[in-house]
Amino acid sequence: MSRRAEGRGGRGPDVPDLVARARAGEARAVARLISLVEDGSPSLREVTAALAPHTGRAQVVGVTGAPGVGKSTSTNALVRALRDDDRSVGVLAVDPSSPFSGGALLGDRIRMGDHALDPGVFIRSMAARGHLGGLSWSTPQAIRVLDAAGFDVVLVETVGVGQSEVEVAGLADTTLVLLAPGMGDGIQAAKAGILEVGDVYVVNKADRDGAAQVARDLRSTLRLADRRDDAWAPPVLTTVAQTGEGVGGVVEALAEHRAWSLASGELTRRRERRARAEVEAIAVAALRRRWADVGGHAELGRLAAAVAAGESDPYAAADRLLQPEP
Amino acid sequence: MSRRAEGRGGRGPDVPDLVARARAGEARAVARLISLVEDGSPSLREVTAALAPHTGRAQVVGVTGAPGVGKSTSTNALVRALRDDDRSVGVLAVDPSSPFSGGALLGDRIRMGDHALDPGVFIRSMAARGHLGGLSWSTPQAIRVLDAAGFDVVLVETVGVGQSEVEVAGLADTTLVLLAPGMGDGIQAAKAGILEVGDVYVVNKADRDGAAQVARDLRSTLRLADRRDDAWAPPVLTTVAQTGEGVGGVVEALAEHRAWSLASGELTRRRERRARAEVEAIAVAALRRRWADVGGHAELGRLAAAVAAGESDPYAAADRLLQPEP
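YS: structure for the whole thing
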């Protein structure tokens, strides 16, 4: 291991060196860069700036679905199929976590051991700190790391709780929604949201009763959706992730969506939307820090006390907060 | 119905009149004010300002717990017990909704018909628009309406999905966490979070097997918590909400927590924290609108395009966004 990347006499990591090593395929450097962005380290800005010129090549695929549809098994099968196709794959698995404890409930999942020795695969669990069941703010930065490191495909697997599929759709170039037979009312309830985010639908556990029915229902519902003639028509595929059956078809569908997104300009639109949300989130976080800073701008505490006492109202207080300091 | 409150020749509602009528106990005026804040109407600011001097008297009680613990039945029983105690009650039931459709999944629940003719009870369902399973941004404003209208207690019932108990704890003076026997692993997983937000714990369905065990486990876990000597020790009560058994004890516990909060200064601390979060959220929303405004500050679109193209990074772009305009 290079000593330089570990810190130059307490001056923090050697970011350019780490980025160069990550781009040369060194898994350790990739892991270290993700840790730097995940921990919100002081070098976060430097890391993000160093990555920027190397990003934009990977296909970012969001994999989502309700608990029980076989997300991990499907991700595993997808990784294998992509590798058979000679494409390198980075995987980010996002776990829910408590905003109070800051710790991941499920812990760092050691799994998908099949790929442990394959340098073309990198797998990382991420906590969804402070974000309700969704994606942590560092997920987009971790995607950048894998993208810059040269992975052809970045799979972002989210635990499908509530509306996280909506968030992953905001991050991904292509969103893969997983379903399975026998999920009952949960699916029904989630359907409305799911139908608007999927680019590719996969009914997993296709060897079970009811799978064909789920696929049929989904196809007819999707046909009813009001789409423009040149819009992407999301395919509905079936798989048995456990055996790999049908997974090749999913890989093809992902490639087709990629080609369509590039040709239609949809890829650029999504990436600009994503960048916009990201820049906004970073700006807002910076403002929150500025407001919380008692030395610099103690205003917020004073304004909050006045609102709590009924002497002011929150809108008037917000106006005051946004007024430029004299 | 007063014609004045319906709009003065397109100039919007007569807010002072609505507030006066709400304070005089007119349910229609209360409902209209909540609609105004919920719809984000142009008069939202005026409404909030008009309410401010009349707020701060009600006890805001958050009622939360996993699906299946009997939240609605418990809320219903609590309303009855509070009415028996001659206290007026406003209820806000917050539903999950899709951020895409904007519509509540569960619809506007017509229920708790027992109280339909009682002027001392006001019940309203609210959508949790754009917020993952949690509380919509208009919930704090709706609480203000009920507080200013003079309700002694405002119950905010949230559908316990994921971390919404954490959010309701942020809004409430007193948080009531409901549990029930036989909820299995869900409870275990949620326990860590639940143990930090409850001021009063209620094991409902106490006539079922395992209820005493749940209460015992909870008590011993709470005893392990590291609390200061003068801190509130959350009681663990048992109820059968269906029959009303034990609900009187819950009402007493709520009153005791109220008295302790007032005496210890905790009420002020919580309300200032709440006001702070609210002012911050409103300020951030105002900034987002400003940034999205193509006429005034088209910067964000241009910055996002540069980030998407790899020409800039999101931190540098956020810095630029926050620079004062020349």
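YS: worth flagging: Confidence is low (pLDDT under 50) at residues 1-8, 97-111, 130-135, 161-166 of chain A.
IM: good catch. Also Chain A touches chain B through 68 residues (CB under 8 Å).
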